Amino acid sequence: MINTAALFSTTFLPGQAGFDTETITGLAEWRLDTPMLFKLLIGAGTQTTAWPIYGDGEDCPCVLAAPMAQAQASWQALSALMDKPRDAAAIVARGAISALLASGQPWLILDGVQLIPHDIGTPDYAAGLDALRAEAQALHSALLRGDREALAPLLAAGAASPATGYWSATASAQLADVEELGADELPFLQGLEVVGWEEDALCYEVSTAGEPDVTGLVTPYGRWIVPLSQRYVDLGVYYADDGWITFATADAPDAHGVLDLNGMLVLPPAPGALYVISPHLLQQIDPDGASRLLRMPDGALLIDRVDNICLREDGLIDIERQTDQTDDDKKRNVYGVVDKMGKVVVPPAYSSVQDVGTKKKIAIVSQRIAGRFLFGLVNSQGELLAPCQYEAIDCATTSSPPKLRKNLIFAIDAQGLACMLTLDGKQAFTPLYPPAHHLRGVAVQSDFLYVVKDGMAWSMDFTGQLLEQFDTVENFKAAITAQLSEAMGLGKKKAVPRHSFTPAQILAKADREQLRAMAALLLQGDAELAARCVDITLEELAQDDPEEEYEGDTPEAACFFLLWSTAADVLGHGATLDWKSVDEVPHIRLHIGLPALQDFRWAQREDGDAMADGLAAIAAHLAPHQLRLVNLHGDEDTYYLGVVRAQDAAAFQAVALQAALRPVLL
After folding, report:
1. CA separation (Å) from 335 to 185, 281, 306, 322, 344?
2. pTM for this one?
């Protein structure tokens, strides 16, 4: 949706006898902003009123209303101050405004609901509406004083000025969602070629048969955002979500400029290509490949010589700069980070910049030094906390922020020795020992490290104190590798082939009483809910495609999993989460609707925590309620979660194992 301000006229206000949304007449609109003229016409005699075209505005004041007679008087007074129009278009535009105001109904409504970034009925929305009313009153006062300076944008307004907006009776289309209509229903599209409907711009892109490369944009109610007379080509409407349209002209197709969503020229065409990065940033690339970052909407240069600009998971923007060095370490491109306004967060001086943590606001950076990539830490102000002198810094992925353990960060220095870093980048102790295993998650645990001393594997606390000797390094590594292989199903035993069964095969083996007993375990002993769960499952199977197949070593196994699916998806007693969906853990109450989870908070969540940490937090929260979290499949990338009573845990596990499932109880 494109946020739009609109003027409407109506005979009665909402709440008055005779008010009817069918009799509202549109006068004017403007995308993205409220024009000065709209505010002036509402003026000083304004009042707030409900506006039932918005559901929340049925009984809540959310728009401004003023007598149309006042608006007409204000327009006449303004016209007397304005210079005479210099061209035919300006004469037509002023005449159209006068005619629309004169033909309007007794009340004028200024609808700026979409431009106040708060929900109707909230104190913030009320404050935004009051601020708009104050602007209207101030402009009306300036008009009465004849204050030309305060009214300058209006006095200098041309035929298509942003200060006056777009005027037409068809602006009443804003009463409903703007959507694509059949081209044969719209007279103004007759004789034109419809290239397509551009949802982001809420316009048809059109051309003429004689010049297919020259295109324009027109709304379903006939407002030309980009008239064909402009002879624009290469319209880039995919940036409309950010508020901009890129274009070139038929006479200079290799030069590109920028329009806003009202079709107003923002940046004139310049040689090269343009790429919108955010509502406030634009990348310009010259024909010779030189690239720079510009600020929108004024086009001011922010950063020169930047390439490969792209958004990151943490909401910031990566920038790359090519270097002209001859030294092997320094001639590689360097990276930095800016925010969506173009402010430099991390200067372009690193080989990589990983995501900034959401809580501690720390990121891992790297530099190539003496032929090696070494890592360090920076804060969200770009200040270097730990120099790039570490062989590795612990994180969940190669783009993640550092993983925190008791507000410390595990690292391996350039000499291969294990240490812990504080949040200000200092070493918590002097590194003395190398880690005992190279695999992520094995070298460091939640409370201690595995390190090597004199060929033996030891545990060591986060202060550098050795705790317990285990075995030789070779035996330790062999034991760890065997444990990991078994956990990942990589042992020598061949995997048992999976089977699948049709609905008819499953129904033939279905024992309702047994299924109800199984379902009751999934539903904390609720027999009535269990019966409903079984009924839903069997009814859906009976109506299913007879050729559909469901996996399981036995029909009972397949049915058990279908029971879980019904309990989860239909009855709200379980959830399916991807192994990467860590951000959904704090919202588990929305996926599993149990009272015990309604007050769940992941208070100890740290940057870099993985799904396993989140599931452990849920399990710890459930434990005082005598409930256990269960993952129905223990070795999959997807978590099939449910909750069972602690007293049912053993029975649940036995039933699941009989069905050849491998549940993990937490």
Report:
1. 53, 18, 9, 9, 11
2. 0.66
